[in-house]
Please model this.
Amino acid sequence: MPRGNRRDIGGWAVGIMRWVIIGAAVYAAALLLLHLCGVKAYIVMSGSMEPEIQTGSLCMVNRRASFDRIREGDVIAFETAGGMVTHRVVRKDGEWLETKGDANDISDGYTTTRENYRGETIFSVPYLGYLHFAVGRYRIVLAGLLVLFTLYNGTREITDRNRGRFDEFLQKK
Model:
């Protein structure tokens, strides 16, 4: 492969890595900002809330939302033995909330109390849950790529700088 083509491919790869790193940094900053505001991200693992909330969506849950202010029709997150659930409140009865997934035919029953209530779902982003999962699962690989990218950029700059000096040296002779 001619040297120029290798350099073009390297530049292209570096450009992609640069945008991946910038995107990851913006994403991490946005999640940190939301976390500081009391909002936690949860991945939707089932289709029980479709079509409003799709499988693979990333739900943002306001963990500071008061249990007492929850009303029928609100979408909440609560914890069960099987994990986190995001369903709609269909009835409030004193200290209990009856919930149901929009796509489900029957309700969950009275599943939620103050103890297992985690917050109110304020919005969701379709398919972002898949990316969130992948980033969490492969964060060591991503960190390694960041280190390699940094090393590559640093050595490339040093090489380019030295190549210029060597060319000047040859021209003087």
Observations:
- The first helix runs from residue 3 to 36.
